[in-house]
Every structure is written in structure tokens, then in C-alpha cells.
Amino acid sequence: MNWRLALPLLLFVALGVLLFSGLGKDPKLIPSPLVGKPAPAFAIENLRDPDARVDSAQLRGQPYLLNVFASWCAACRIEHPVLEAYARQGKVRLIGLNYKDRREDAIAWLQRFGDPYEAVAWDIDGRVGLDYGVYGAPETFVVDAQGIIRYKHVGPVSPDVMEQTILPLLAGGGS
Q1: How many C-beta atoms surround the C-beta of residue 40 within 10 A?
Q2: Tell me, what's the pLDDT at 171?
Q3: Residues contacting 139, CB < 8 A, separation 6+
Q4: CA dihedral 14, 15, 18, 19 (to 10 degrees)
Q5: How far apart are alpha carbons 83 and 102 in whole angstroms?
Q6: How many whole angstroms separate alpha carbon 69 and alpha carbon 110?
Q7: What is the spatial distance between Cα 87 and Cα 167, in angstroms, rounded to a whole number?
Q8: Beta strands in the chain (DSSP E)
Q9: Residues 90-111 pLDDT 10s
């Protein structure tokens, strides 16, 4: 057999197998190597109070959601009413990570759409986001009472995701 003719055919078949193997997989499901591991530690400026810090060590003791958001993020507007409703009902402890955003824009955004966050860390340069493996906003992490990441959600959180995935994790202490 002539390898010059067979090589393109073999490459075509290999590419076909690779593409076929991706069919049926959820493109929003991006596995995080951090799930099951301690959440990266941070102590950065508080968005609302530049003289204060949000320290991840102080968040331990009860499970929480770390929600990555920004005023420039259109999809964050979609999930915000969902997060706000669950936080206001006391069903979730919500911590914000404002990602690569100007302080005044983020504060104006929270004033306009509501501020359900217990605390908001201001990640102006994206370093904390990088430690968490953030691809963009919105992303949400379930962190248990011991500071272990139990789940990562990429994209807007819907009521279904909240009810079927996040709340059961939080009810179990996040573990």
C-alpha cells in the first residue's frame, strides 16, 4: 500500500473518531481540577470598602457559593435574579468575586440590579480568578465548610441547577 495515499485517509479517520467522541457531551461542562481540593486562599480588597479585605480563611465554617461576576458580563444579568432570590430567602451564603472590573462600574451594577452578596472581593487584575481556573464570568463554585471546592458551574446559574445540584451540595454541608 502506498503510504502517501494512506496517510491522509488515516488522518481523516482519526479526526472523525475524535470529533465523534465529543458528540453528546455538554459543552458547558468544563471539569475543574480543583473540585475535591482546597479552594485557593485569597485576601484581597473588599469591593464596597477599599480599607477592608475579603479573606477566604474567614469564610470557613459553613458552606458558601463563590460567584464570579462583572458589570461588563451580559450573562451575569441573566443569573443575578436567581442568585438574589436564593440569597434573600437564606438558602445560600453568597460571596461575590468581582472579576476584572472597575470598582465604580461594579458598585453601580450592584446598586442597579441588587446586592445579594455577604461580601464581595474585588479581583481587579484577575489573579484570584486565575488561581480558581476562571475562564470568564459568570462562574460559580460551591465551597464546603472546610474550604473544599465541591462543584464548579460555568455560565449562568439557573433555578434547575440551583435546585438539582447546588442546594443538595449545600444541604450536605457542601461535601
Answers
A1: 16
A2: 86
A3: 67, 68, 132, 152, 153, 154, 155
A4: -150
A5: 22
A6: 11
A7: 12
A8: 43-45, 53-55, 64-69, 94-99, 119-123, 139-143, 149-154
A9: 999 999 999 999 999 999 999 9
**Torsion sign (Cα): 152, 117, 63, 86:** negative
Amino acid symbol at 141: F
Q: Which of 149, 131, 60 is nearest to 166 (CA)?
A: 149
Residue 131 in grid coordinates:
488561581
Phi first, then psi, for residue 46 (nearest 5°) are: -80, 130
Which residues sit opposite 113 in a β-bridge? none
Residue 88 has which C-alpha cell?
A: 434573600
Spatial distance between the Cα atoms of 175 and 149, rounded to a whole number of angstroms: 9
**105: phi then psi, degrees, rounded to nearest 5:** -70, -45
| Mean pLDDT taken over the chain | 88
